[in-house]
Write a structure and sequence with these properties.
Largest sheet: 11 strands, mixed
Distance between the termini: 32 Å
CATH class: Alpha Beta
CATH topology: Rossmann fold
CATH superfamily: Vaccinia Virus protein VP39
Order of helices and strands: HEHEHEEHEHEEEEHEE
Structural class: alpha/beta
Number of helices: 6
Mean pLDDT: 92
CATH architecture: 3-Layer(aba) Sandwich
Number of domains: 1
Radius of gyration: 17 Å
Length: 218
């Protein structure tokens, strides 16, 4: 089975969490600017909360997403703030960028929206477009998450690690989960600078578990 990439319909999104930068990203705005890493890719930008944050800090921002509704909303926000950035629509499994294009890359709650095969391909693409010696920060779903361990009959298992909401004819976005070994193996071509397992007790009113990975390309 091959899971086709699916885009979020951001027009339906009402939760302000998707418009507010994640707290970890304030640190990376500071860190990467101090290191001179300002050619920045927001991979899976959504409505652009982080693309806007980095652009306001003076980064050369490329915002990438499959969702046209998200990119349209971001274009309007960037224009209203007079912030230059490049907006690109495409699939994370086939990034339309040359090798070693970016020196800083963020992918926050994005690349696990596929199956195991797709997640491995997305990780390879991240390694390909990131310059050796430069840095990434990303999140992955953990197999310790209750969303995975307690998944009910309304979820269809696409492979050993991937669940998709499938009830009453509705097919949701796939979610792939990994354990610590699998997460590290996905990015074995990077030097791990920080590898954390985080429980998000308040994430959208639910408890979820994620890996937070800060790494340097080799």
């Amino acid at each position: 089975m091959t899971v086709l990439s699916q885009e979020w319909d951001w027009i339906k999104s009402k939760d302000p969490v998707w418009e507010t930068p994640a707290q970890e990203c304030y640190y990376y705005v500071w860190r990467w600017k101090e290191l001179g890493l300002t050619r920045f890719l927001d991979l899976g930008c959504g409505l652009g909360r982080h693309a806007l944050q980095f652009a306001e800090a003076g980064y050369a921002v490329t915002a990438f997403d499959l969702s046209q509704s998200g990119l349209d909303a971001l274009a309007a926000s960037a224009a209203s703030r007079e912030l230059p950035m490049e907006l690109v629509r495409g699939d994370m499994q086939a990034l339309p960028f040359a090798d070693n294009t970016f020196d800083s890359l963020l992918s926050y709650h994005c690349i696990y929206h596929t199956d195991v095969k797709g997640l491995k391909q997305a990780a390879r693409e991240i390694a390909r477009v990131t310059r050796p010696g430069d840095e990434i920060f990303l999140t992955l779903n953990s197999t310790l998450s209750p969303n995975y361990t307690r998944a009910g009959p309304e979820y269809r298992r696409l492979d050993v690690r991937t669940l998709q909401y499938a009830k009453d004819g509705e097919e949701g976005i796939p979610h792939c989960y990994v354990n610590a070994h699998e997460a590290a193996e996905l990015f074995s071509g990077f030097e791990m600078l920080q590898f954390r397992h985080v429980e998000d007790h308040s994430f959208l009113g639910k408890k979820g578990c994620h890996f937070h990975i800060h790494a340097r390309a080799l």
